[in-house]
């Protein structure tokens, strides 16, 4: 997931602190003529079958014939001009919205497949030697729009279910209810992380569009060098926000010409993934309400409790919010001047200098910045003493487009991916698995040598919050950034007023504008 909620995905060269545009994202598509017109302008129109799939509800999409060429493969032209084709007998896996998947690809001819092959692909090929895999990741060399134009859909997609079902997969007609298929395949959802399972269900219109695979969990990183310099005790697992606030006050300070900040947590993600499992949409009479019938609620006592908790850090003098990347080097002038930050496991691996998680061109900078940071890791803060609720999970899940002729094979692969064997493998490569057995937990980071001297025992601490009251709602990627990054930090509003304005004006205006432009997210 991008570290900024309701903004375009990473890699666009945009300022992450800038307000998002309500226009079409680079992965955004729609169900109606806006999709067809936009793609027709780009490439002279879609194949008839793709157009039908793109404009059909995901629950009624039908398999499309004729995707294969006479030569037994389909070429997928792309912006890079790189030859890319999928043979009829290949099982096509496409992944998006997990940065490590993208590393290793550039314009010199390397495909971005390094991470996938090492962590998942090689194991899949060994387990299913008769299956010919074809893999690609967004956006090198292909994107969703390239795939849609060519008419050769993936057989299995790995994506972020929280925001991308409604923004990408559902508008293209690339999801369908897999409840019965998952049961018949013998995939035991009850054994998996329930926060991840419910998150997928909450975006699945009353069904189950995908199966969770892993979590790029949020943890709290702390710089031991700052704590040691000022002789402050390190934070521990289960610390409350009040505990961390007291530490932040001690560590937000000037020392000669050096200014240190105590704590940062991205306020957009804090609201969207909140630890009470609050869902902003009000249940109505349908799983797919008309835009005019979508209602939100951000002004309940629970929402106010959540919002006031983070606001104390945003108002702490000298602790001005910039970006959580400042734990290493972001917008602040110097690296290593932020004591604590809530960030993802993929960033932990990058800050530990694992080449699997650092872009080759960035390696020299990361190595230099690392000199100012000695990494400590613990759980993110909890709302109250005795609670063990952390964020709703930053999940990646597997989806099978209903048009795929290789559905049975894809289901077998998904079943393998949630087995203890592969979940242990995923955990060993530094992400949080969705199958929380002891063997899986104990394997965390063992395949990443750079984590050897970092205590990561808190990675599996706590329980992911479970989203609640999502039945009969439709997810829209609403501009929660307005609450803090606009109204509190720029406009100077108090928290309650910011929540009220977002609920009564910003979000309704956003939904009306999106609907008027033909978008359904």
From TrEMBL:
Record-linked Gene3D superfamilies = Periplasmic binding protein-like II (3.40.190.10)
The UniProt annotation puts the region (Disordered) at: 1-27
Q: Please provide the record's keywords in A-Z order.
A: Signal, Sugar transport, Transport
Q: Which InterPro entries match?
A: Bact_solute-bd_prot1 (IPR050490), TAT_signal (IPR006311)
Work out whether the entry's keyword set contains Hydrolase: no
Q: Which SUPFAM superfamilies match?
A: Periplasmic binding protein-like II
Q: Mind telling me what this protein is named?
A: Multiple sugar transport system substrate-binding protein
What is the protein's species of origin?
A: Kribbella orskensis
């Amino acid at each position: 997931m991008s570290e900024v909620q309701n903004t375009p995905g990473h890699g666009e060269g945009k300022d992450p602190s800038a307000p998002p545009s309500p226009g079409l994202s680079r992965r955004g598509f729609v169900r109606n003529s806006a999709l067809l017109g936009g793609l027709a302008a780009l490439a002279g129109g879609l194949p008839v079958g793709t157009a039908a799939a793109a404009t059909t509800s995901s629950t009624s999409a039908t398999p499309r014939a004729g995707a294969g060429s006479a030569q037994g493969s389909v070429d997928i032209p792309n912006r890079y001009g790189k030859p890319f084709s999928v043979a009829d007998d290949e099982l096509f896996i496409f992944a998006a919205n997990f940065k490590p998947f993208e590393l290793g690809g550039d314009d010199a001819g390397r495909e971005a497949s390094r991470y996938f092959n090492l962590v998942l692909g090689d194991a899949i090929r060994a387990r299913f030697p008769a299956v010919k895999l074809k893999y690609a990741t967004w956006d090198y060399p292909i994107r969703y729009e390239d795939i849609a134009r060519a008419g050769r859909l993936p057989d299995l997609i790995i994506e972020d279910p929280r925001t991308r079902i409604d923004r990408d997969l559902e508008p293209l007609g690339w999801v369908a209810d897999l409840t019965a298929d998952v049961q018949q395949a013998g995939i035991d959802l009850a054994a998996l992380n329930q926060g991840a399972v419910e998150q997928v269900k909450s975006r699945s219109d009353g069904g189950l569009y995908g199966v969770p695979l892993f979590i790029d969990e949020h943890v709290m990183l702390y710089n031991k060098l700052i704590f040691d310099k000022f002789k402050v005790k390190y934070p521990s697992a289960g610390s409350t926000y009040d505990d961390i606030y007291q530490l932040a006050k001690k560590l937000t300070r000037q020392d000669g010409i050096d200014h240190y900040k105590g704590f940062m947590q991205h306020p957009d993600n804090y609201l969207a993934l909140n630890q009470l499992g609050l869902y902003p949409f009000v249940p109505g009479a349908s799983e797919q309400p008309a835009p005019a019938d979508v209602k939100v609620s951000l002004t309940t006592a629970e929402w106010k409790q959540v919002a006031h908790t983070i606001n104390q850090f945003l108002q702490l003098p000298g602790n001005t919010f910039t970006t959580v990347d400042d734990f290493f080097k972001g917008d602040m002038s110097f690296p290593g001047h932020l004591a604590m930050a809530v960030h993802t496991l993929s960033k932990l691996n990058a800050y530990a200098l694992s080449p699997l998680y650092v872009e080759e061109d960035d390696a020299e900078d990361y190595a230099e910045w690392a000199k100012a940071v000695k990494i400590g890791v613990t759980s993110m803060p909890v709302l109250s003493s005795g609670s063990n609720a952390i964020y709703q999970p930053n999940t990646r899940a597997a989806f099978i487009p209903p048009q795929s002729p290789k559905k049975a094979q894809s289901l077998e692969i998904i079943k393998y991916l949630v087995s203890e064997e592969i979940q242990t493998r995923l955990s060993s490569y530094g992400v949080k698995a969705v199958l929380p057995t002891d063997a899986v937990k104990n394997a965390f980071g063992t395949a990443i040598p750079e984590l050897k001297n970092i205590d990561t025992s808190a990675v599996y601490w706590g329980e992911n919050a479970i989203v609640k009251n999502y039945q009969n709602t439709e997810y829209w990627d609403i501009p929660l950034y307005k609450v803090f990054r606009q109204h509190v930090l720029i406009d100077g509003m108090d928290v309650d007023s910011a929540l009220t304005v977002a609920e009564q004006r910003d979000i309704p205006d956003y939904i009306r504008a999106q609907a008027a432009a033909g978008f359904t997210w």
